[in-house]
What does this fold into?
Amino acid sequence: MKDDELICRCEEITQAEIKEAIKFGLKTMTEVKRFTRAGMGLCQGMTCGRLVMGILARETNQPLSEVKPCTSRPPVRPVPVSVLANRVTDDDQN
Amino acid sequence: MGRTEIAVVGAGPAGLAAAIEAARAGAQVTLIDENERPGGQLFKQIHKFFGSEAHRAGTRGVQIGRDLLKEAQDAGVEIRLNTVVYGLFAHHCLGLVCGDHTEDLQAEIIILATGASENALAFPGWTLPGVMGAGAAQTLINIHRALPGYRVLMVGAGNVGLIVAYQLLQAGAEVVAVVESLPCIGGYGVHASKVRRAGVPILTAHTIVRAEGENGVERAVIAQVDENCQPISGTEQNLDVDTICLAVGLSPLAELAWMAGCQFTYIPTLGGWVPVHDQDMQTSLTGIYVTGDLTGIEEASTAMEEGRLAGLAAAETLGYLAPEEGERKKAQVRELLATLRIGSFGEGRAVAKGQIVKARCEA
Amino acid sequence: MRIEDHPILGKAEWGRKITLIVDGEPIEAFEGEPIAAALIAAGHRVFHYTTKRNEPRGVFCALGRCTDCVMTVDGQINVRTCVTPARDGMVVKTQIGLGQWEDLQVCGEKEE
It folds into this structure.
């Protein structure tokens, strides 16, 4: 897999960009995500997550058991802001 | 905010089974799924399951899905479809997306049965239209009756790869080859035989090198690999295909379990990071249970039994089952689970599952 | 191609036949099926072009997660066609990059 091939399909991030971030000194999935945007696209890392973990493990010489996924935060699926802003509680129903 | 006694997230075989057991014991159960119909992967499985009668051997996954759905409805489970659990917050509060608004659901016990998703394999040309997950092809042909292509290369000879290759043949496609990077076939012999008898070559120690095409897949280049899974130069072959299916494993969909703060352990044979749980399927957090493929990639039959175990344990915790009756029923399910984890394929999973429970006890 | 007759599933039972307008051309669909299914059955494989590299993308996961199947549907961008039911007369466009909002709505009110 050449370095100019895509790893993150949504944000179109290449293997080279991910390796560069790791060379820069970033050691965790969350850091790599924030620096490169890999995992920040519409699919939120669903497709590239495991691939990036593999690259991180190889480049930092760690076993996969030491590479935890990105911090998981809500929402776990893309939700339109208009929907999040429309929270229905019991009070509204009274 | 809404309240329920037991919230089950995910209405695949594990979630449905958990909801049915808990509701039959008398608990108030809310079963939530992001899709417009429940059943998870069952509705794509048109092949007959095997095992014992207790495990619905001889029945197609599609029918099992219908049966479970009816049982859940009959047991009085509240089923909320097209509903996404977007977050798991403090005090067992679930955030739900329901169409155009969000709601909160407070549960005494949460059972996560969110299943797994297909892994990706990156190679030059993997983003071309025509490259898709094997499960994606299965959804298109078995549920939507749309053929994604006419000439297919299947990457991966595990059970998913072999089963979907055969189903593509049934749907009218030509499967040009199945490639498997390992030196041996990972799936059951019975599936491999069906594929071979249909004239499809299964090339072990081979991988896909690249996909080529202008606006979609027109060609695949495969090659033999060495013991480090690296392509051996000079062994490249061009295959005239328009579709490349990736069947390279599944990984648990564990975002909610991570978010809640559950403890995890890494077990490659089960799909990587899995939440630890005890013999009752309870995680390191009291009141949060996990079940099915989320706890390790296995099969629909183990998912159903694990679901039952979690449902029974949750109902017992809430007092709907007396301790002796609860223990007796759980022991029966654990025995059934043990019979599913035998033989050359099952033993490895039994050991791996034992590691999960051990990790939980040491937590 | 549609799988009309299947050795296990039997003869297909289709819903009401409808028409989608895809990039100006009519494409036959069945009411309620995912837009992507109708397009795939009609041999239509390119669903959108990416923002940076302008590369073609199509169906990848078919479950509504990978978002490679997004198109602009009835003026709305980033619609996941593999999980969006087809309705008669839907206007479906191959999306270029992030697409163009055609009917900008702010909190449900149309901009004047």
Summary: Chain B has two domains: 2-117+250-362, 120-246.
